[in-house]
Amino acid sequence: MALTITSDNFSELLSKENELVMVDFWAEWCGPCKMLSPIVDELSQELDGKMTIGKVDVSDQQDLAAEYGVRNIPTILFFKNGELVDKQVGALPKAALQEIINKHLN
Prior knowledge:
Blueprint: E1 3-4, H1 10-14, E2 20-26, H2 31-46, E3 52-57, H3 62-67, E4 75-80, E5 83-89, H4 94-105
Parallel strand pairs: 1-3, 2-3
Antiparallel strand pairs: 2-4, 4-5
């Protein structure tokens, strides 16, 4: 299961040196988010120990969504060394997410 990310633990996650962090901005009422959620959870289990994967509920964490310019959901942000390295908007198939992850893990 992906980690629940809030404004309380977000900056701590980004401070991990040389670790890839994938953040799924979603909401319970969002249909495409519900389609993507099981994929994010699967990747979280498969890549445990290799990277951090978490979810931000934009209904509860509007400040984080605003800070990172998330206007449409689902939006997935990828961070490495605290820096934004990739952004994907919309529901993606698992293979497409794995391709992005593999690009940044190396």
